[in-house]
Structures are given as C-alpha cells and as structure tokens.
Design goal:
about 230 residues; alpha+beta; Fumarylacetoacetate hydrolase, domain 2; 8-stranded mixed sheet; 5-stranded mixed sheet; about 15% helix; binds manganese (II) ion
Length: about 230
C-alpha cells in the first residue's frame, strides 16, 4: 500500500539560480574542505595536512541564497565569515582520477561557510565533532552558479569585504588541494551525484561578525554575493 502521506511538512533547500538558465540547481549534499589555504590554517594555529584533504558537511536545509539577511545564530559570541569557492557537481563521480574529475563539474559559485568559531575551538580542544560549529541553520550562503563552460579555476582573486573594509583575500591557485584533486579524493568515499556542492576552503582573514554587518563576497569571474547579518535569534 503506497497511500502513506507525510505527517507534517519539513524544510527544503532552495534551488540555486544558474546564470543563463531558467531552471534552478537542486541541492543534494554539502561537503566542505578544511584548511585548504596555508595562510588561513596558520592564522588559526593549525598546520596543513598535505597527505590528504579532510571534510565536514552541512545540512542542505542550512543553505541560504545570497541577497537577503541571515540571523546572527544562537549559542555563539564569535560568529565568523569564511568566503569560499563552491563547486557544483552535475554528473556522477565515483573513484574518478584527477583527469576524469572535471567532467563531473556543473559549475561554480561564491559561497560563505558561516562558523561559530568559539564552539569549533571548544570541540577541537575536546577532540569532538565540529557539527555544532559548522552545521546549523543558515550556515551556508551561496550565490548564482556560473556554468563550467564559462569559468575555469586558475589564479582568480577571492575576497570578502565587510562594511566596506577588505577582510579576506587570496587567489584560487593558493589552494592546497586543487578542484580535480578534491573531487577525485572525495569520490573515493562517496558516490558524488548531481546536486552535491563542495565548499573548497577559505583564505586568511576570517573574523567575527556583528548584527547589521554587510558582507560582499567575490571570486573574479563569478557572480558576487551580498548578505546582511540580522539580529541575534
Ligand atoms: Mn570553511
């Protein structure tokens, strides 16, 4: 019998606009890479692991489109911005080589990996999972996707301006793990599928935000993003 209906409705993740297309990109999973710029790893007192990248995840329902405001989240007094290049996967990839990896890329976007840094530091100290610091409501912000036919990651500048002041900047060629390396490595552990997103790590300059702050993020060649921090919830 297939007449079972849901007891209640649950949140869904937003469709991401795609430049030049009417249809939106549905989100399946959100993977994030840690410590992918040496200067950022150093500013948090960490060293880069050059043997293999490592990952954490965020719930797709924690994703917000740019252009509006997001609430200052509960449980933190050190809420940080991390500007990142985001890879949008558009074709299956499982155990792919770095040479094959790029075939699975649908496009790229600018994103923010919002972080409750005080909670992350506490979890790191106790060797506990990072979830409470990384995977919360409105913890991932993303702008429109540019198709891979119109953008290739090279040495483009990535930057974040807060209230008119430059906070973060770097270049995509400073990433410890390149786009094909990240996809190839992640595909050893997951069947990557269309709808998956990979947040690729942040350059140095991360810092605390306050309600009312206005963030402007950019990667040269992609759609820039804007978001405002709303009142604390
Ligand atoms: Mn990050």
């Amino acid at each position: 019998m297939s007449n079972i209906r849901p007891l209640f409705s649950i949140p869904t993740s937003p469709l991401i606009p795609v430049l030049g297309l009417q249809d939106g990109f549905p989100v399946h999973r959100i993977f994030c890479v840690g410590r992918n710029y040496a200067a950022h790893a150093a500013e948090l007192g960490n060293t880069v692991d050059r043997v293999a990248p490592f990952y954490f995840t965020k719930p797709p329902t924690g994703l917000v489109l740019d252009g509006g405001s997001i609430a200052y989240p509960p449980g933190t007094e050190d809420y940080h911005h991390e500007i990142e290049l985001v890879i949008a996967i558009g074709a299956p990839a499982f155990r792919v080589s770095t040479e094959e990896a790029m075939k699975s890329v649908f496009g790229y976007a600018v994103g923010l990996d919002m972080t409750r840094r005080d909670l992350q530091n506490a979890m790191k100290e106790k060797q506990r999972p990072w979830d409470i610091s990384k995977a919360f409501e409105e913890s991932a912000v993303i702008g429109p996707i540019t198709p891979a036919s119109e953008f290739a990651p090279q040495a483009q500048r990535i930057s974040l301006v807060v209230n008119g002041s430059l906070r973060q900047q770097g270049h995509l060629n400073e990433m410890v793990w390149s786009v094909p390396e990240m996809i190839s490595h992640l595909s050893r552990y997951y069947h990557l599928t269309p709808g998956d997103l990979i947040f690729t790590g942040t350059p140095s300059g991360v810092g605390a935000l306050q309600p009312g702050d206005r963030l402007e993020g950019a990667v040269e060649g992609l759609s820039p993003i804007t978001v405002t921090i709303g009142p604390a919830v």
